[in-house]
Amino acid sequence: MYCKGEVMTTEEFESMLDKCCDILTNEARQKGFKSSKHFEDRVREVLDGLTVEDSSIKIDYDSPAQAFPDIAMGEYGVEVKYTTSDTWRSIANSVLETQRVESVKYIYVVFGKMGGIPEVRWGEYEASVVHVRTSHVPRFEVEIASSAENSRESLFKQMGIRYEDFRQLDMTEKMKYIRAYARKIHPDGRLWWIEERDTDEHTLPIQARLYTNLSTEEKTRLRAEAALVCPKIVKSGRDRNKYDDVVLYLLTYHGVLCHQARDLFSAGSVANPANDDNGGIYIERALKLIEDDMRKAAMEMDDAIFVEYWGESVIPEQRIERWLEKADEFARGWKPSKSLFLD
């Protein structure tokens, strides 16, 4: 039996989380929570109310915005997740954990799902982390299982290390585990950008950028690089997946998000900037305008990128010729080698 003033056991803390989630579930179904901030504030208030007479539990109301976990309660901590979708899965904190509250020993997740039938559940943090995203600054993903039978194996079990041991490693050591995990779940995936290397020449920017916000010069350079490593862009306009590699390349190598990749090569502003009425194939006209930029990219880009995207190593002087061979295989109704890079 828990006695106020004594140090709370994990069983007692989890019992309190049961009560907290029951209260929040009722509130979610009656009036809902309109924002993650609203929900997190309410989680803090409910937990404070459940421990108001306990001098051993002090809830920090002034924690930094990026603190992990969100709510520190002495040795216990609660990371709050919120979604308006009907899912129990969410992106979580950065693997770096630079704002970790070191006094916290036991971390739990309180998850508010507002989509479908609103409900609030809790889970042990280590058991709830089921994946790590590696397409940007590595971030964990958490999922609260509907039952023990439906629970996924935790990421840390998959990596063969306890969370407490993993979190104390430096980032170089953490990345060794993340790379091994990524290779296991994506044996044919494009992982060069998270491999170890001696320079940071192609590392990702910390913050992703929108393509539409880039300068004209940078847009042209990135279009040339993407066109070079992704020759399938010359496929028929009816091919729904022709720009997938372009999107992945820009995101994983440059941290640039392009939500309308088709417009990189088929929009009138890039294929027909003169706004004339000469007609023709838009992708062909767009590529003609960046031939010099593609030549420059072919001479300067790292060979590992071509090994990854083309499946072969090609010396810089032969990359345009090899690109034309690949493009000829993809194109329908025209032949790139008959109209591009002729001079």
What is the averaged pLDDT score?
Answer: 84
How much helical structure, as a percent, in the residues? Answer: 40-55%
Find the count of extended strands (DSSP E, 2+ residues).
9
Straight-line distance between termini:
85 Å
Question: Taking Cα atoms only, what radius of gyration do you get, to the nearest Å?
Answer: 26 Å
Domain count, please report it: 2
Task: Summarize the helix and strand pattern as letters.
Answer: HHEEEEEHEEHHHEHHEHHHHHHH
Structural class: alpha/beta
Ranges where pLDDT stays below 50 over 5 or more residues in a row are: 197-207
Portion in strands: 5-15%
- Helix tally equals 15
- Overall geometry: elongated
List the strand order in the largest sheet: 1-2-4-5
Instruction: Tell me the major beta sheet.
Output: 4 strands, mixed
Structure write-up:
Strand 4 and strand 5 (119-124) form a beta hairpin. This protein has helices spanning 10-30, 36-50, 125-128, 155-159, 163-167, 171-185, 216-229, 244-254, 263-266, 268-271, 282-289, 291-300, 303-310, 319-330, 336-339; strands at residues 71-73, 76-83, 89-94, 106-113, 119-124, 129-133, 139-143, 209-210, 256-257. The chain has a four-stranded mixed sheet. With 343 residues, it is of the alpha/beta class. The termini are far apart. Helix 7 (216-229) packs across helix 12. It has two domains: 10-185, no CATH class; 209-339, no CATH class. The longest helix is centred in the first third of the chain and has 21 residues, at 10-30. The chain is built from 15 helices and nine strands. Mean pLDDT is 84; it is low at 197-207.
